[in-house]
Amino acid sequence: MTNTSSKETVEVRERSWPEVHALDELRLLTEFLTFLRITAVNKVAGLDRSKAVATPWPTSPKMSMLGVIQHLTAVERWWISNVGGGSDLPTLYWDDDEPDTDFKIPEDATPASVIAAYEAEWARSEAALAGMRPSDKAKLKFRDQDRTVRWILTHLIQETARHVGHLDVLREFADGQRGE
After folding, report:
1. Does the pTM exceed 0.85?
2. pLDDT, tens digit, for every residue of 27-75?
């Protein structure tokens, strides 16, 4: 069953490139991450649930557009809020006993609900890093290594960019649209 009501689909978000002559490193990193986050959201814009949960790659049977967004939400919570900001928030969608559970889509999930959870995580991330500088150490050690805010944001940028590439191809499989 295809549901294309406005409550179930996602609208395109406006995005802008980061400041070209930025002097504030943290602002530049955050603006690049925001640009990529919005790009990821826009890849899902206008799709109904059936297309957004489709898994067209036989070698990656759990990878769907909504699964990628859920994965990005979970990764952002872990790295920015928990590792960077020292929060004790529960991990999202992960089960240590089953691989790729963050890509498993709940039956009641819609493009709008998955995107709303992702966007809510952005605000949590901003609060977690409030007042920190790029060279500040993460508040939670991960695998016995100190990470800086700079490292965490750069890692999230590369992780999000990598998955935006997956979303490009998944969108093309879904309806033939190719993005920027």
Report:
1. yes
2. 999 999 999 999 999 999 999 999 999 999 988 888 999 999 999 999 9
For residue 159, give Cα distances in angstroms to 38, 79, 109. Answer: 14, 11, 23
- Close Cβ partners of 124 (under 8 Å, ≥ 6 residues apart): 77, 80, 81, 87, 89
Those residues with Cβ within 8 angstroms of residue 26's Cβ, 6 or more apart along the chain or in another chain: 132, 133, 134, 149, 150, 153
In this structure, the number of other CB atoms found within 10 A of the CB of residue 3 comes to 12
Specify whether the backbone of 144 is left (phi greater than 0), alpha (psi in -120 to 50) or beta: left
- Burial class of residue 122, CB neighbours in 10 A (0-12, 13-18, 19+): middle
How large a percentage of the chain has pLDDT more than 90?
A: 66
Q: What is the DSSP letter of 148?
A: B
Q: Which residues in the chain land under pLDDT 70?
A: 1-7, 96, 99, 143-144, 179-180
HSE, side-chain direction, 13 A CA sphere, residue 144 = 0
